Amino acid sequence: MHGLGVLARASELARGGETFALATVVWRQGPSSSKQGSRAIITADGEIDGWIGGACAEPVVIREARQVMADGIPRLLLLGSPDQFGTAVPDGMTVAPISCQSEGALEVYIEPVFPVPHLVIVGNSPMTRTLAELARALDWRTDLVSTAEFSAGDHGADHHSMVVVATQGHGDEEMIERAAALRPAYLGLVASRKRGEAVVGYLAERGVPQDQLDRVHSPAGLDLGKTSHEEMAVAILAELVQLRASGALPSVPAPRAEPAHQPEGRPMRQLKLAEAVDPVCGMTVTPNASTLHMEHDGVTYYFCCSGCHRAFSDNPHKYVKAATR
């Protein structure tokens, strides 16, 4: 996967409510198997889709990407041998030493992508357009659809979504029936209390399961008394924000706290990951069955390449002593 395929996969993961990190190569020093503009997606469990570099860079990028997802802070990562850069590293950049035999270097920007609430608004009125604008201002994924589009399934709503039906009496019953069958996290009808009771009663007579009808909030929104259509949109959004923040909508992504920073932009906490350090070159490697390794005095050591494996095999005492200093 590469190029636009990575971005398409990112969109798919975001719509599916998954947390992931997007890594982009913003600079390279050859020789390097990566190119400027190369991208990769790293999922929360450490899987990588795309291309960010070879065996030297990939484990480090995965480690840093998982840390980025843990603390919510993007970072600019400089990968290479420490003596390549000296004191020329800008403030705020994370340096990750790698001892790649190619002697290349990479600068990779890693940003976290967290799931956001999905709001589907059915209807076309000044109120629905205002509600859509307000929700988008919160960076929610928002779809404003007509009754025809909703009937055709052009909405992407599922049990993670919040659905607001505001059709002003034009097909309320059909839209609520279709929406209720999706079992969304929230289903609201913009109507008077009396009108809402009539819609729910009609659907009950039609045989719509009661557990689906019990999910209907009618009238949708907090009760603010007599309001304008702009204020009604605020009332609806306020109810959604309140329910989400209280945990009453467990299938909707919860609000994230603002990431905390230490001085100089360093993350407050470090994620403990399964990783090892090559005792020969000091590079981070992933300890698994496919990684070159060797047992010495009851301890298993892992290596980034056959050269380091051979050097350790020839003189293990030299590198064990250096690693324990």
**Element order, helices and strands?**
HEEEHEEEEHEHEHEHHEHEEEEHH
Main sheet properties: 6 strands, mixed
CATH architecture of the largest domain: 3-Layer(aba) Sandwich
CATH uppermost class of the largest domain? Alpha Beta
Determine the CATH topology of the largest domain: Rossmann fold
- Indicate the structural class: alpha/beta
Report on this model:
- It is elongated and about 85 Å long.
- It folds into three domains: 1-117, no CATH class; 118-246, NAD(P)-binding Rossmann-like Domain (Rossmann fold); 274-325, no CATH class.
- The strands form four sheets. The protein has a six-stranded mixed beta sheet, with helices on both faces.
- The protein starts with a helix and ends with a helix.
- The model is unreliable at 262-273 (pLDDT under 50).
- It contains ten helices and 15 strands.
- It has helices at 4-15, 58-71, 126-137, 147-151, 172-181, 193-205, 210-213, 229-246, 306-314, 316-323; strands at residues 20-29, 39-43, 48-50, 75-80, 93-97, 105-113, 118-122, 141-145, 162-165, 186-189, 216-217, 276-277, 284-285, 292-296, 299-303.
- The protein has 325 residues and is α/β, with parallel strands linked by helices.
Please summarize what this structure is.
32% of the residues lie in helices and 22% in strands. The protein is α/β, with parallel strands linked by helices and 325 residues long. The strands form 4 sheets. It has a 6-stranded mixed β-sheet, with helices on both faces. It has a 5-stranded parallel β-sheet with strand order 8-7-9-10-11, with helices on both faces. It has a two-stranded antiparallel ribbon with strand order 12-13.
